[in-house]
């Protein structure tokens, strides 16, 4: 393909499965600047640092979709290692970030720390990395402070544990509410458009259209 017809991707991404939860820690970068963000460093920080080294990008931020231990267990350690700010989640997940150590203890996770982000995120806020800008959607239900990162230009979202391929986030945990979760998906995510693809917190990604048509929690089969 010659240079005139090549369409260069605006972003690159690498999924780094971490901990026994197989959580999708995501390294996302701007292709134009090679500036990057780590989304949801749930643990195994040396593994995350090695992925950063291999991709030769410069991480400037850490973003958190929500406060559960499998998504934030490595956040404080990674912030110290990279000397970058943490942005997110919504302040309604403060009770989770205040109890990272006790949450980790229940799952045998040591070396984790309670922490606060450098910036809480609200509905309508914007975050950016390099030339990429993302809108913040507050989507409670899995946790009270869950947020989704959405880039309209690329028709792409990182939805954390709000929505999965063929499923939705758990709501049988402290702060969870199934009706609230479904309302978040119906009111905030489905209107983004069927062509929007997404990375989620566990398992393979999908698209809004695929989930609208086949997800049993959205079609009424569940």
What is the CATH topology classification name?
Answer: Metallo-beta-lactamase, Chain A
Number of domains: 1
Per CATH, the class reads: Alpha Beta
Low-confidence blocks of residues = 1-7
Q: Would you identify the CATH H-level superfamily?
A: Ribonuclease Z/Hydroxyacylglutathione hydrolase-like
Write a brief caption for the model:
By secondary structure, the protein is an alpha+beta fold.
Description of the molecule:
This protein is α+β, with helices and mostly antiparallel strands. It has a single domain, classed as Ribonuclease Z/Hydroxyacylglutathione hydrolase-like (Metallo-beta-lactamase, Chain A, 4-Layer Sandwich). It is about 25% helix and about 25% strand. The protein is built from 8 helices and 13 strands. The protein has helices at about 45-55, 70, 75-80, 95, 100-105, 180-190, 210-215, 215-220; strands at about 10-20, 25-30, 35-40, 60-65, 85, 125-130, 130-140, 145-150, 155-160, 165, 165-170, 195-200, 205. The strands form 3 sheets. A 6-stranded mixed sheet has the order 6-7-8-9-12-13. The protein has a 5-stranded mixed sheet with strand order 1-2-3-4-5, with helices on one face. The protein has a two-stranded antiparallel ribbon with strand order 10-11. A hairpin with a 4-residue loop joins strand 8 (about 145-150) and strand 9. The longest helix is centred in the C-terminal third of the chain and has 12 residues, at about 180-190. The chain is globular, with a radius of gyration of 17 Å. Mean pLDDT is about 95; it is low at about 1-5.
């Amino acid at each position: 393909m010659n240079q005139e017809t090549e369409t260069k991707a605006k972003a690159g991404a690498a999924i780094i499965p971490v901990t026994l939860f197989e959580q999708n820690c995501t390294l996302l970068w701007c292709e134009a600047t090679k500036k990057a963000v780590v989304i949801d460093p749930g643990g195994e920080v040396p593994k995350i640092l090695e992925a950063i080294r291999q991709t030769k990008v410069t991480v400037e931020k850490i973003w958190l979709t929500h406060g559960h231990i499998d998504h934030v267990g490595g956040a404080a350690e990674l912030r110290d290692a990279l000397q970058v700010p943490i942005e997110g989640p919504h302040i309604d997940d403060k009770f989770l970030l205040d109890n990272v150590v006790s949450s980790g203890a229940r799952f045998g996770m040591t070396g984790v720390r309670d922490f606060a982000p450098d910036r809480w995120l609200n509905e309508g806020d914007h975050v950016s990395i390099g030339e990429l800008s993302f809108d913040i959607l507050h989507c409670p239900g899995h946790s009270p402070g869950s947020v989704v990162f959405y880039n309209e230009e690329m028709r792409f979202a990182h939805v954390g544990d709000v929505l999965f391929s063929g499923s939705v986030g758990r709501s049988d945990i402290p702060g969870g509410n199934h009706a609230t979760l479904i309302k978040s998906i119906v009111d905030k995510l489905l209107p983004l458009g069927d062509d929007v693809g997404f990375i989620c917190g566990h398992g393979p990604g999908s698209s809004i259209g695929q989930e609208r048509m086949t997800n049993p929690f959205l079609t009424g089969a569940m």
